[in-house]
Design brief:
CATH superfamily of the largest domain: Glycoside hydrolase/deacetylase
CATH architecture of the largest domain: Alpha-Beta Barrel
Largest sheet: 6 strands, mixed
Number of domains: 2
CATH topology of the largest domain: TIM Barrel
Bound molecules: zinc ion
Strand order of the largest sheet: 2-3-4-5-6-7
Structural class: alpha/beta
Length: 425
């Protein structure tokens, strides 16, 4: 029996098997002809989490009601909530939520933003007014206006912008150690422009009432040491793939894979990669493959070229930064693929031929039975590591398929096996 080594060297590190807390709420589903993706961070500060959750729920319900009513004419509908989340000086928890909705009912896609700046010392939400010296407000308003004029000369409605800036307690803003960032819903201050408008001003130009440490604190990661994997090209092989993670269940999935000496391919959503950096690094260390599943799970085939490329590239960048690995595979969101998508990326587009439909029913036994019936040598199976039951399904699946003498490889390994076999012939 010939064996070959797949390019990996290094130590097998034992990783903890404890359950992980949920860091990002993820909900991906189809309802009223709508592709829905909702993601928002869980901070474990109950006051802040409740506020965020309430806003998400309201926006989602508003959208659903409208969509339900006009479901016959509102085709190709999409609802997406994307987020950012960071801390500043162990003092501020800062979240943005970006709401996006579109359908044939709307003449233009709708973009909205909410920002949350939470002070963990006094346990209160902060508005910009709370953080700026009252004598500095006029100056700041001027600066923001100038930046808006510079960045959006063709579409800015000056009077509306002035009006919007007149009450700074309502402005959407965030900050880090370098800049303050200001955001505007486009329909408030622009004509013919639809995406969120954003300008930044360096901290030292703003008269703050609070102390912030200045300077950039970019986190860097040590390279990951990978395990060596031994593959037998003559053995029956399948590639199990996981979409929509990482999540709090991914570690349990990794435990199961490890138990059966299996490797999987994880098509990750970029905006969750850094928040689950430990899980991502473990994935790589234990010989799994990472693929790209967009940055915020937007419906890729509906995007213009620029946004499409951005959705892919941001995920390439963050995976590389956190794990040192550059993905070579792309799994399109909502399983939708067209020529525009294929031509916009050098990544290989990977679909599947066995669908566990692990999101659909809760009957683990039925799912496992059907999946095994459809699986054969060379199959690519799709699962979702955002579902609790997927852990059980995977365990049963690997147990049964191992008895049928399958080996469980990554998509790239499966391709190499196929190439080797073709070469032999
Ligand atoms: Zn997906």
């Amino acid at each position: 029996m010939r064996k070959f080594l797949i390019l990996l060297f290094g130590l097998l590190l034992i990783t903890g098997c404890t359950k992980q807390e949920e860091k990002v709420k993820t909900m991906i589903e189809k309802k009223y002809n709508t592709n829905i993706t909702i993601q928002y961070p869980i901070t474990n500060i109950s006051k802040l989490d409740q506020i965020v959750k309430k806003d998400v729920k309201e926006k989602y319900q508003d959208f659903l009601e409208q969509q339900k009513e006009f479901v016959e004419i509102a085709k190709d509908a999409e609802f997406n909530i994307d987020y950012t989340y960071h801390q500043v000086d162990d003092h501020y928890e800062i979240i943005t939520l970006r709401f996006f909705s579109n359908s044939t009912l709307l003449s233009n896609p709708l973009y909205e933003i909410s920002t949350y700046v939470f002070d963990t010392k006094d346990h209160e939400m902060k508005t910009l007014k709370d953080l700026i010296s009252s004598t500095e407000i006029d100056k700041l308003q001027d600066k923001i206006l100038k930046e808006l004029q510079k960045k959006y000369p063709d579409c800015l409605l000056l009077d509306q912008a002035k009006k919007e800036l007149s009450d700074i307690s309502h402005l959407h803003f965030t900050f880090d150690h370098e800049n303050f960032y200001f955001y505007f819903d486009p329909y408030e201050i622009a004509a013919g422009y639809f995406d969120i408008m954003e300008v930044s001003i360096p901290i030292e130009q703003i008269g703050l009432t609070i102390d912030l440490e200045l300077g950039e604190s970019k986190k860097t990661y040590q390279p990951v040491e990978k395990t060596t994997r031994i593959i037998d090209p003559d053995q029956k092989s399948i590639a199990i793939t996981f979409d929509d993670g990482p999540s709090n269940y991914t570690n349990e999935i990794l435990n199961v894979l490890k138990k059966y000496d299996a490797s999987g391919t994880f098509f990750v959503i970029g905006n969750k990669v850094e928040i689950y950096s430990d899980t991502m690094r473990r994935m790589v260390r234990e010989g799994n493959e990472i693929g790209n599943h967009s940055y915020s799970h937007k419906w890729l085939t509906k995007l213009d070229q620029e946004e499409l490329k951005e959705q892919i590239q941001l995920t390439q960048d963050i995976v590389k930064k956190v794990t040192g690995v550059t993905p070579r595979l792309l799994r399109p969101t909502y399983g939708a693929v067209n020529d525009k998508l294929r031509n916009s990326t050098s990544l290989e587009v990977i679909m599947w031929n066995v669908d566990t439909r692990d999101w659909e029913s809760h009957n683990v036994d039925t799912i496992v039975k059907k999946t095994i019936k459809n699986t054969k040598d060379g199959s690519i199976i799709i699962m979702h590591d955002t579902k609790k039951q997927t852990v059980n399904i995977l365990e049963q699946l690997l147990k049964k398929l191992e008895k049928e003498d399958y080996q469980f490889v990554t998509v790239t390994e499966l391709e190499k096996i196929k190439q080797m076999r073709a070469y032999e012939k």
